[in-house]
Input
Amino acid sequence: MQRKTLSSPKEYPDLDKFAGIIKSCRYFRKISLALLKEMLRQGEFVTLKAEEFLLQENHSKPPELIVLLEGSLAVTSKDHFIMRLNHPGDVVGEMSVISANPIPYADVIAEEDSQVVIFPNHLFKVAEDDTNVSVAYYIFSHILAEKLRHVTAQSLLKKNGRSHEETGPLIGILDPDSKYRGIIKSTLEHVWKMSRVIELESYQNFLENPFENNFDFIIIDPELISRDSSQAEKISNLIEICSSHLAPMLVISQYCKKEENRQFLAELGVTDFLLKPLSAFDLQHLLIKFRKDHYRQQELEQVEIAADTDRLTGLANRRRMDEFLEAMLTLFPEEKQSFSLIIADVDHFKHYNDAHGHQLGDVVLASVAEIFKNSIRRGDLAARFGGDEFVVILPNCEKDDAMLIANKMRETIAAEKFPFQQQQPLGKLTCTFGVATFPEDADTKELLLKKADDCLYKGKAAGRNKGLAAE
Output
């Protein structure tokens, strides 16, 4: 591994090239080239051969912030793959830099010949009363903010893709002892009747495929994972992987007998322990506590969903639609997945309202909304845009497919039997649709909505009950 400082621009005429490379990345796009070059001068240029380590887990050297210029890096922990960096401008090491314990908790290894820029840990240390910070610290703060935006966007899209069918929580019991698995499962069946339980007897099987099940609650006994000097390290790795499920965790084990072991688990984020052999009352008490916490969290999620839902139609409201569109735009530069937007409007809706009253008008809007719900894919978003206008957002959907979906909805609405629809100017109640695709038709949220809206009004002018796409 070769490391060379970038502090002297004369030695590195490629500084402009390096700044251009990372500016194209999602985290640095809003930073000026001048600031990026200033930041690079505080770093070191490093070339790596394939299979060469850049960072090693639990190494005593303070962690560093790493920015990829070229090649591919793998981040692993205890021989388990965590993530891959293969886009210029990808960043790793930021969480260890801000950690109170500055020891790297992962290996970083080159998968092929690679080039990176490394920034030493001291650049990100600022005294409490210091009002001046380095440009590297400033950009580092920006990176964390951008990463938060991307994580939030991914979480929103993932949440939208979940099934909302009411099922009991999925609980995993990881314990090699079949006797205790049976006791815990039997108690769960008694105090948490809606729960679904999966018994896991092998640490190795779980570690080889830790996300085969998306657990809502995990109960583990980590003690038997190892009896030698590597026990603490292996338990740490197990707890870290369990924590990745973002689910509450309960440790039931003789390992909790010693105070130093409980303290060790607490440092890993475990807050609930139970000692073997266990008391039936204590087990029931803890499981009831977790059950109450689970349903309390579900209630909070329902409140959140209600705040983002249009009361009349049950579709997403305008606020949620805007957030969803923003998330799509945030993730597009890396994922490069086109998405389409449909705007629909009920034809001659004012005529229907004037003739039959707002109550029947509301029945029509709710019925049209139900057709939208039943016509879209999981992960799509249908929203009430306002009045009798609706918007459907279709991730990873090209224009031709979006037109098929729009025409399917249009035909279904035209075939529906609405009250008094024969008195409409067209002899039935219909909708007109406009379709636009990002980035083919527009490169901003506002322009995409306008392009779809323009198509909608062209369809109105052409006689209504039409579906038109931006050209």
